[in-house]
From TrEMBL:
The protein, known as: Adenosylmethionine-8-amino-7-oxononanoate aminotransferase
Function: Catalyzes the transfer of the alpha-amino group from S-adenosyl-L-methionine (SAM) to 7-keto-8-aminopelargonic acid (KAPA) to form 7,8-diaminopelargonic acid (DAPA). It is the only aminotransferase known to utilize SAM as an amino donor.
Family of this protein: Belongs to the class-III pyridoxal-phosphate-dependent aminotransferase family. BioA subfamily.
GO molecular function terms attached to this record: adenosylmethionine-8-amino-7-oxononanoate transaminase activity; pyridoxal phosphate binding
Subunit structure: Homodimer.
Keyword Ligase on entry: no
Residues recorded as bearing N6-(pyridoxal phosphate)lysine in the entry: K290
Organism: Neiella marina
Amino acid sequence: MLTTGLFMSKSLHQDNKLVDTNFDRNHVWHPYSSANPINDNYAVKSAAGCEIELTNGKRLIDGMASWWSAIHGYQVKEINQAIRNQIESMSHVMFGGLTHQPATELCRKLIELTSQPLQRVFLSDSGSVSVEVAMKMALQYWHGNRKPQKSRFITVRNGYHGDTFGAMSVCDPVNGMHSLFRDVLPQAMFLPAPPAGFDMPLDNSWQHEVAQAFELHSDSLAAFIIEPVVQGAGGMRFYNPEYLTFIRQLCDEHEVLLIADEIATGFGRTGKLFAVEHAMICPDIMCLGKALTGGTLSLAATLCTDDVAETVCQSAAGVFMHGPTFMGNPLACAIANASIDLLLASPWQQRVKHIEQGLKRGLAPCAKSDQVADVRVLGAIGVIEMKQAIDVAALQSRVIANGAWIRPFGKLAYVMPPFIINEQQLNSLTKAICQAVGPV
């Protein structure tokens, strides 16, 4: 029922030390949750380093890095100082017709860190929006090329690119959490997922099927979008980087743009600064987010080549038709600059390698459980795939009792900890998960 013309006064209660979990349950809608949840969310008091402290005093080793973004952990002095410094001058100013040093410095950094052909940067608010931007770039590119019939996107199953409408259309139609919207989404072309296994040899039959799809449909294809090397929320799958090389070649041969969604994999998570480096390729368009600000504020970027940018502006509009209100937010850009500087000044490669070794060692016992289908690790990513769907609340409760925090989904219990996690914390994290998964 809609209520109109009625003013209802509500008392305001502010107490930073308390979390009203009853109010939270009845009025606050959390990600991928029911409006009438059975269980309360765990109330957080603070977070520092690699630990989250609950309001009941329980300390948990964070195995999620706040959905893969807090690569430096929490309460990072360099990032906090960048926040203080930037607030002294401006926290926000519109980006239309104006510019500022935090944004230009960040764009310069991103261009220097990525492959040479990527020379233009479009800033936005979130990872999903960066994918929307990439898809709109691809469509306007072909209008600028006088080939407007090239308007369809091609991708692989088990992919995940975000929750906004364009992004949903290229997520796995069955496992991508968006099957409810299938009838109203643009119809992308879905190919089989690259066969699993980072070190597995290439599958010739898969290559043949993909090549055939390009041959048959290239006249209508605008872009191929894919998560390089690691498919994230669509299944936490790793695949051989040579498949990316193969896809890059097909895109070149058939005049199809390649979009690399590096939102989850960017900034070192797989052991390379960007996952496309495993294949030594450069996409036409690259999406970045999550760890861009070290998990402090929402910010994303879409990079593209000069060719893409200039051709987009040869379309009838003459400009790129997108402009978020908080585009280039100075505070977020200043934080991103501090986070990137901190990452590059750190021994991040050694840290990720150490985490990879610790995850392989610590999660190996889980493979002995009759309930576990697979255990896999790549870089600072560890995955336990169960044979049956996980009771998320029950597993989380057991992991928390063991002093750690993870957020399972489907059949997967996985970890992507902050890069600063030490050996003792990593051992405790993997032990907590193995104990929670079940007897071995």
